[in-house]
Write a structure and sequence with these properties.
CATH class: Alpha Beta
CATH superfamily: L-arginine/glycine Amidinotransferase, Chain A
Low-confidence stretches: none
Catalytic activity: L-arginine + H2O = L-citrulline + NH4(+)
CATH architecture: 5-stranded Propeller
Protein name: arginine deiminase
Organism: Rhodohalobacter sulfatireducens
Bound molecules: citrulline
Pathway: Amino-acid degradation; L-arginine degradation via ADI pathway; carbamoyl phosphate from L-arginine: step 1/2
Oligomer: single chain
Distance between the termini: 14 Å
Keywords: Hydrolase
Length: 407
């Protein structure tokens, strides 16, 4: 598969996901906040909801499209004893507060599948030694981001997610899927952080990066410089509130079509001077202060943009639906988006902008045995049920890490 993402909305061809497993059942209510969950979630229903979401993807994706499960990819790379040993060494070194060295010998002896389960669940059979589970593995989006034919390796801002990020790093380094891009992977170091939910690819030339609770200023600048050296012309830095409810740019802003986005008004349209355009000037990087995200996108692309309101016109609905990931839509093709059905006002807003609302069953029935035609089948907003998933504080975009899109 050709690793390439040239837009947020091109026809989806390859995507990495993780259907929630036992790790979510290991979240103890006393530490749920530390694990970045707002509630405990019921594993069985969460898994069914996730699998239902994947059925929508399969119906929409071309015949040669592929959905990759991150646990399977990890198991594949862990077939190599050297890779397993390196991963264990990296965990010990990079997560000193976890004291993993105590069980180094046991970890080395684990077969690949069990090592993957250790990463997700944090426990070893017959051992008292316990790490916290990694329930956020579900949100594969944040672990890395493909922009053009570059892959950005995230660096977690929160300890609770550090193990997942190391797993993705190993997958990118050793899984054949990433063979063409691994050598020029973009990384950050030291105390810099960047998470994939803050990276939105507008085109081959333009990438948006949120400066958020999770992506630091220096992480953003470090990645921007490398992207600009890899052929991107503009990195647009978007300063967003540093808070739990909108921890990444994609919790308040996503693309539905080439020039149509869903935005949470209080943090996007109603903000001014929160955007900086970064571009190359000779060997250095120059920056230009911009008035708003809409104006910047219009200037850089030469197209007019429509921002559809997450939650519609009513203030309370805007806040409620942003909290339940109304703005976190995931595009399967230009103008074909998927999101949680509970965000009814956001779906109404999409309908008022010409989208046809289909629920998951209607969409699957129509497209299961028929190819989605990106020229004809446009402006479809698909809803699915995600009442359990939503408690993890992420939506459809957060649960997907696309690696290949057509266009
Ligand atoms: N891109 C995203 O916004 N991802 C959602 C991450 C939710 C997860 N519970 C976290 O706080 O990291």
């Amino acid at each position: 598969m050709n690793i390439n993402i040239s837009s947020e909305i091109g026809v989806l061809k390859g995507v990495i996901v993780h259907s929630p497993g036992r790790e979510v059942s290991l979240v103890n209510p006393n530490i749920k906040e530390d694990l970045l969950f707002d509630d405990i979630i019921f594993e069985n229903d969460a898994r069914f909801e996730h699998i239902d979401m994947l059925k929508i993807f399969s119906a929409a994706m071309p015949d040669d499209g592929e959905i990759f499960e991150i646990m399977d990819m990890a198991e594949e790379v862990f077939q190599s004893e050297d890779v397993r040993a390196e991963f264990i060494e990296v965990m010990i070194k990079e997560l000193p507060f976890e004291n993993i060295h105590i069980i180094e010998k046991e970890l080395i002896r684990l077969e690949p599948k069990k090592l993957v389960r250790f990463v997700a669940e944090g426990t070893l059979e017959d051992q008292i030694f316990n790490l916290h589970p990694a329930p956020n593995l579900l949100f594969t989006r944040d672990l890395a981001a493909v922009a053009g034919d570059s892959v950005i390796l995230s660096r977690a801002a929160k300890e609770a997610r550090a193990r997942e990020f190391l797993l993705m790093r190993t997958i990118v380094h050793y899984h054949p899927l990433f063979d063409s891009v691994k050598k020029k992977a973009i990384t950050v170091g030291g105390h810099q952080t960047i998470e994939g939910g803050d990276v939105l690819v507008v085109s081959d030339d333009i990438v948006l990066i949120g400066m958020s609770e999770r992506t630091s200023f220096s992480g953003l600048m470090g990645v921007a410089e490398q992207l600009l050296n890899h052929g991107v012309e503009h990195v647009v830095a978007v300063d967003i509130p540093k808070q739990r409810s909108s921890m990444h740019l994609d919790t308040i802003f996503t693309f539905a079509d080439e020039n149509e986005c869903v935005a949470f008004p209080p943090s996007i349209e109603e903000k001014e001077n929160n955007v900086v355009d970064l571009f190359k000037n000779g060997e250095g990087v120059q920056c230009r202060q911009c008035k708003s995200l809409k104006q910047t996108l219009e200037e850089l692309t030469g197209k007019e943009f429509t921002f559809i309101k997450c939650g519609g016109e009513n203030r309370i609905d805007q806040f409620r639906e942003q909290w339940t990931d109304g703005a976190n839509l995931f595009a399967l093709a230009p103008g074909v988006v998927v999101g949680y059905g509970r965000n009814t006002k956001t779906f109404e807003a999409l309908v008022s902008h010409g989208y046809k609302h289909m629920n998951q069953y209607e969409f699957i029935e129509e497209f299961e045995n028929k190819d989605l035609d990106p020229q004809k089948d446009r402006k479809i907003a698909i809803s699915f049920e995600g009442h359990e998933l939503c408690r993890g504080r992420g939506g459809a975009r957060c649960m997907t890490m696309p690696v290949s899109r057509i266009g």
